[in-house]
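Lay summary. Proteins are chains of building blocks that fold into shapes, and those shapes determine what they do. In this project we predict the shape from the chain. Here is one chain we studied, written as its sequence of building blocks.
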Amino acid sequence: MAKCFSFTALQDSCYRYSFSRAGLKSFATDLGDGTVMHCWVPKTHVGSKPTLLLIHGFGANAMWQFNHFIPQLKSTFNVYVPDLLFFGDSHTTRPERTEAFQAQCVMALMDALNVTNVDLMGMSYGGFVAYSIAAQFKERVGRVVLGCAGVCLGKKDTEKGLFQLSVDDAINILMPQNPDKVRELVRLSFHKPPPTGPNCFLNDFIEVMCTEYRQEKIELIQALHDDKKQSNLPKITQVFSSFYSSMVQLILFLFSRSPSVVLFHMQPTLIIWGEYDQIFPVEMAHTLKRLVWKPSNILHIQGLHSS
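And here is the predicted shape, written in a compact code that computers can read:
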């Protein structure tokens, strides 16, 4: 019997309505060479506001990860929310799978939208892409927020046990194909995991969100691990003077892997990390700080609980 109702598809439609009500509209552009990029963009771009680019991590499309924060952020920023390649409505026939290529496609999208300068916020895998944007397009990037993004990940981290998941483990969890793997993903992603619901809901989520472009997403995960060396990590040299404190508080609520976060505030980048992060352990935040920036103070913020 054919399936006639999907809770996941219904939720996706609700998010689309929410984004539209918040003043955003769907935009897609063909970059050529078989690459199409989709983005939620302001219905009206206000020239007096800075532009904020929100870059999602692995999982569902961008709407699912940023829906609750658009209404607050839009009062201060022109908010742009792209779908990375192989998520949502973005895709390519080209073979590249690196975060550097993702970064180039995102900025080509911004060119198509006539947006020159941006502030960045990247979450988890989106932090890898945001870091690459900041490294490749220094003259166009102002402030940067990296959330729980192990951009300094190298093969030795796996060998030393710092990175707790092997590549195969990460693929099986980030691309779940059965309800037990979805529950494991939730357990790893939240310090206090929420209820996951019955198998029928989880199977529906898998069918809608975890089957399309599965092989391509596997290759994205593999590309994060292949030939990574900390010594090759580029430095971000663009400098800015300050970061809106209200923006910091809003961004903190984007991260639910831990009730405590480790926060570095320095120029030009703010690093936010879950103290008990089980995907990219907090030691990676300290490694990233040592590799890229001058010494700075570390602030531990207590009392932020999982949603």
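What the prediction tells us: Residues 117 and 190 are 33 Å apart (CA to CA).
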